[in-house]
Write a structure and sequence with these properties.
MetI-like fold; single chain; mainly alpha
Length: 292
């Protein structure tokens, strides 16, 4: 069975067919749709406009703002989300007691539905009954308007906070698994040479995570480019006045609120192109170390 040249194709062909039907074909239709202007969702005879939808998007100030908001979120994710996950993995890797508890605790946010998570944070931020304001009242401070639309920077950060927090545990598990794969002999040799735990982390562990870091960064960037649910729940329609839109939420508005299916399709194409370019840039900067 293992020497047969036919058996691998028996497993590969159904997978390829599934990917083609549910990925490549819909994306091809999406590219085709991006060249047309739809008067409504049920428009059966859309007008061919060529690249006009793409030009309109580039000239759209809200699109530019949503793109900038997404790029800022990518930066925050790489620094705070991936960075926190790496630090937690290094710390948990050092302990033996209660390590399973920490693994489950840090991974727990992934299990929670994004909708439930968004509603939970909305309750945290609530002016009258929110947990944050209740904590302030308990220590003798006055209530605070956390989601004040006049303060866009604070509202943006509070909107993106659950996005960053939710996937820390996901990357934490990836890093921790990679750390377990580091040879104990290398670490013991470092200890014999008088290397402290901090130096082992900086000089040995982190460099040996180079290939894993490369994968994590690609996952973090591509995942952030298409984030939708949490920003949509916490700041619906990019409130206020679309200023807090990210790419995913603004595409949703174009497709289902404005019924501009052609523009939304071109939006999706741009997001895919951005994802491919960022992934290629990451793979160029963080080159694979074949010696690890």
């Amino acid at each position: 069975m293992y020497k047969s040249k036919i058996m691998p194709w028996v497993f590969i062909i159904p997978t390829l067919a599934f990917i083609f039907v549910f990925l490549f074909y819909p994306f091809g239709v999406n590219i085709y749709t991006s060249f047309f202007k739809f008067r409504s969702v049920l428009d059966q005879n859309p007008e061919f406009v060529g690249l006009h939808n793409y030009v309109d998007l580039i000239k759209d100030d809200t699109f530019v703002r949503s793109f900038v908001n997404t790029l800022i979120l990518v930066g925050l994710v790489l620094v705070l989300q991936v960075g926190t996950a790496l630090i937690l993995a290094l710390l948990v890797n050092q302990i033996t007691k209660l390590s399973s508890l920490f693994k489950v605790t840090f991974f727990m946010p992934i299990v929670i539905s994004a909708t439930a998570l968004g509603l939970m944070f909305n309750l945290f931020y609530d002016y009258d009954y929110g947990m944050f304001n209740q904590l302030l009242l308990n220590i003798g401070e006055e209530k605070f308007f956390w989601m004040d639309p006049a303060n866009l920077v604070r509202r943006y950060l509070l909107t993106m906070l659950p996005v960053i927090w939710q996937y820390v545990g996901f990357y934490f598990i990836i890093f921790l698994t990679a750390l377990y794969g580091i040879s104990e002999e290398v670490l013991e040799a470092a200890e014999i040479d008088g290397c402290s735990d901090f130096k082992k982390a900086i000089i040995i562990k982190i460099p040996l995570l180079q290939n894993v870091m490369r994968t994590v960064v690609v996952l973090a960037i591509t995942g952030t480019l298409k984030v939708f649910d949490l920003p949509h729940i916490i700041s619906p329609n990019g409130y206020p006045s679309g200023k807090l839109h990210v790419l995913g939420t603004y595409m949703y508005e174009k497709a289902f609120s404005s019924n501009q299916l052609g523009v939304a399709a071109s939006f999706a194409v741009i997001m895919v192109i951005a994802g491919v370019l960022f992934s290629a840039l990451t793979n160029t900067v963080l080159k694979q170390n074949k010696d690890i």
